[in-house]
From TrEMBL:
Annotated keywords: Signal
Designated name of the protein: Lipoprotein
Protein source organism: Sorangium atrum
Signal peptide range: 1-25
Taxonomic superkingdom: Bacteria
Amino acid sequence: MQRCLRSMVIALGVASAALVSPACSKSPQITAESIEDNWALTEQHEPGSVVMTVAPDGQVTALVKDRDGKPIAADVSGSVSVKVPGKGGAPMSAALVPEPKAGGVLLAKLPPLEDDLTEVSYELKVKGEPFNGVLHVPRGGTRELQESAREHQTTQLDGTKGPNGGVLQPVGDDVVEIVADKESGDLRVYVLDLNLKPVPIGEREIKLAIQTPSGPDVIVLAPGPDRLYFTGKLNVKVNPTKITVVLKQGGHTHVVLCGYRPGAVIVVGPSAPVIGILVATTWAVKVDVKPTVVVHDDDDDDGRVIVIHKHKHKGKGKGKWHWK
């Protein structure tokens, strides 16, 4: 009898430990130390910064840091909201809730990302200071934006102007020029070949999410005459501070944050630098509709120039082009 009682007590103790241990040992998946390694974007505000991830299932993680880069865990509150594509009414909002033992990480749950571009807004109060911003994220969330940036980080286009004086941005296998007339606000996007010459847009589709001091705006561009370029209209004739480009072709969708480099800090608010797409232009640059042959260096420093492409190139060597 005593042996049986002792066995029962031991069994109950083991069962209780099994129930309690997971809860006691559970640790947060993302902490203040690891959030930046989980495909986060960092936006720099005047009083500090917001580090945020948005996952394809709608899970949002956020962390606020002070001017010195130290996490702020106390006196932080706020929410995130999303405009669900194709559904009317007010945006759906979710409170940002502190994650225990995560060093200041906040969590929220939004609907899954189902469109090629979803607008996610955040409103935070940190010791009375507002931290507000907007992200435009693809189906793959912030991870997809980081991966797109890594794919093109070896492409040397910084400071290079397009044929019309606009901004150049690699997207998928293409390079596009984004340019607008500063007088009329007429917006055009050209597709360029490896020599940075405009070519017909083919069956591509493009839309832009543009952020200005007046707020965010998504512009769906239409094909221009003879499908030589895309055309649209700026609602506000000012240079934007952020542009997210969505390009569709052949069943594939590519989304990039214009000018972004992996791990870079995105400055927002009054001190944010602008992207110079507004130029004085007469749209005099012609689109070459004839196939031309271009060559490029194979980038191994042996002096050889190889690979011949026409306009409908397949983008071999993707992410390794070096334009001048």
